[in-house]
Write a structure and sequence with these properties.
Blueprint (H helix, E strand, L loop, with lengths): L9 H7 L2 E6 L23 E5 H8 L6 E3 L7 H10 L5 H4 L3 H9 L6 H22 L3 H5 L4 H23 L8 H16 L1
Antiparallel strand pairs: 1-2, 1-3
Helix pairs in contact: 3-6, 5-6, 6-8
């Protein structure tokens, strides 16, 4: 369940700009601006900072790694237990607008696979809520606890359901068997009768 970055996607840019907690493994000269509480120009080894995901990944994958990446709080064990117990009661929009997308990036580095399992379990539990929100007439209140990607899927499902409903109500385009299929059936029947 890994996620590939998309350079031209606005939503991917927003996801990779989410800040995640890191601990410096080496001194970083002239990088004091990364820590708002720092009064020095340099960041010292052992300093805990929150930096954007794109920067954390580039510092983590260097040889030797310059930072160790920690899980964001919404993917830690306490939140995973809450989500696994009853994900439908959690307001994912408030917790993290890009819960699933950021989780896919985080899951790439989760050796145990706990984050990936939580993402799948959360979506399975919330699917019925997303489905009912797509058919609900009161869309603003039904979209409140949904994450950004859930809102996009709900809006797309609502458009599709509305188009299907209009098509079914129209009734001017009844489904009929294509001539090619009908003639194929006749040929098959004729061949079978020959034997």
């Amino acid at each position: 369940m890994s996620r590939q970055s998309n350079y031209l996607s606005i939503s991917d840019i927003l996801v990779t700009n989410e800040k995640i907690p890191c601990k410096l493994l080496h001194d970083l000269p002239k990088m004091g601006f990364l820590d708002p509480s720092s009064t020095e120009d340099d960041l010292k080894m052992g300093t805990n900072v929150e930096i954007p995901l794109w920067l954390a990944e580039s510092l983590y994958f260097r040889r030797p790694p310059l930072v160790s990446v920690d899980l964001p709080k919404i993917y830690k064990e306490a939140y995973r237990e809450i989500l696994n117990a009853d994900a439908c009661t959690v307001d994912l929009h408030k917790l993290g607008q890009h819960f699933y997308e950021l989780g896919c990036y985080i899951a790439k580095h989760d050796i145990k696979g706990e984050v990936a399992n939580t993402l799948i379990n959360t979506f399975r539990q919330r699917f019925r809520m997303i489905l009912s929100a797509s058919s609900s007439s009161d869309s603003i209140s039904s979209l409140q606890p949904l994450s950004e990607s859930e809102r996009e899927r709900t809006a797309a499902a609502a458009v599709t359901e509305k188009a299907l409903s209009l098509w079914l109500q129209r009734g001017d385009c009844p489904l009929s068997t294509a001539n090619m299929v009908a003639s194929h059936r006749k040929r098959k029947r004729a061949e079978m009768e020959m034997f």
